[in-house]
Specification:
Elements (H helix, E strand, L loop, with lengths): L13 H16 L10 E6 L5 H12 L3 E5 L1 H4 L7 H8 L5 E5 L3 H10 L4 E5 L5 H15 L6 E5 L4 H13 L2 E5 L8 H14 L3 E4 L2 H5 L4 E4 L11 H7 L7 H4 L7 E3 L22 H20 L7
Helix pairs in contact: 1-6, 1-12, 2-12, 4-5, 6-7, 6-12, 7-8
């Protein structure tokens, strides 16, 4: 298999996304195959993590591979040495890199100079692994994807970008409510509209949460202030006032709607206190599905390739 990086959810075709979802559901119901036996993967993290690190480490272990965690202090991407050099060094040692970084440009540099596949485990621009787990959760809970209404409330951030692209790929209608200045990327929106024209998905943007949530099958939100944006926290709280998901907002969705959040959650900000424990919440099932979706992704990317050096 040709070297295949996953820097954006758009690096996968709709058929590949479907294949990963089917594989993830199979893996969830039976012992995982040892598809990474003999493979060594490096987790190269610039940002702290709970779900991403643990789910990837467990996935690699259960698939029979070996995981090497590299902390920010050990590597110093762009400080101690440039990403291009790090990529060329690690390519001589490992079969692949899973990278959690601040800048999409860092991923692009790593992928450009790496001889082994690079996976985006989060950047400032996209979070494709989260989107795969999200779509898997919706499929599992609703039994289908095409034609469902997904409402996203809040910041047009990396999670929103990837989720919009995945939804457009798979035929989900996507409605996002964001305050002015915090919308999804124009480039992502343009790409998503192209995917939607093929899948039949409808995309709508609004600044009114109530409008986005009306008749939604899925209500989704994320933090107002992401890592690296702490200096903007107060400004963002003011901008997002009125964008909190609470029981009243959820009541505008369909009666059988589910609520999702990628975590960590800021209780009392983007979510009202207690919403994660609401019967409509599938947040912790969604968290678990990071493990299963990533196992399927790892098999797709690394299970058929070895070292190229």
């Amino acid at each position: 298999m040709k070297k295949k990086d996953l820097l954006s959810i758009a690096d996968l075709s709709a058929a590949e996304v479907g294949k990963i979802l089917r594989q993830a559901l199979l893996i969830k119901s039976r012992p995982a195959p040892k598809s990474l036996s003999g493979k060594i993967l490096a987790l190269l993290f610039e940002k702290p993590s709970l779900r991403t690190r643990v789910s990837f480490e467990v996935a690699i272990h259960e698939l029979g591979g070996y995981c090497l965690y590299l902390s920010p202090e050990e590597v110093g991407l762009g400080k101690r040495e440039p990403a291009s050099d790090v990529a060329r060094v690690l390519s001589r040692y490992v079969d692949g890199m899973v990278v959690r970084t601040f800048a999409q440009e860092t991923l692009q540099q790593l992928a450009k100079y790496s001889k082994v596949p690079v996976v985006n485990a989060l950047s400032d621009f996209e979070h494709p692994c989260q989107a795969l787990a999200d779509i898997l959760t919706i499929l599992e809970k609703k039994g289908k994807l095409k034609g469902l209404n997904l409402a996203y409330i809040g910041d047009g951030n990396n999670v929103a970008n990837s989720l919009l692209l995945a939804a457009a790929y798979m035929g989900l209608n996507f409605s996002i409510a964001s305050p002015a200045g915090y919308e999804v990327s124009d480039d992502v929106l343009k790409m998503a509209k192209g995917f939607a024209s093929e899948s039949g998905s409808r995309i709508s943007l609004t600044d009114k949460p109530e409008q986005a949530v009306k008749d939604a099958d899925v209500v989704y939100t994320d933090v107002w202030t992401s890592m690296g944006q702490e200096a903007e926290a107060q400004k963002r709280r003011q901008a997002f006032a009125g964008y909190q998901v609470d029981s009243q907002l959820l009541s505008l969705a369909k009666k059988d709607a589910i609520f999702m959040h990628p975590l960590p959650a800021h209780h009392g900000e983007e979510v009202a206190v207690g919403i994660l424990d609401d019967p409509r919440s599938v947040v912790f099932d969604q968290t678990e599905n990071r493990l299963h979706a990533q196992k399927a992704l790892l098999i797709e990317i690394y299970g058929k390739v070895g070292r190229t050096h």
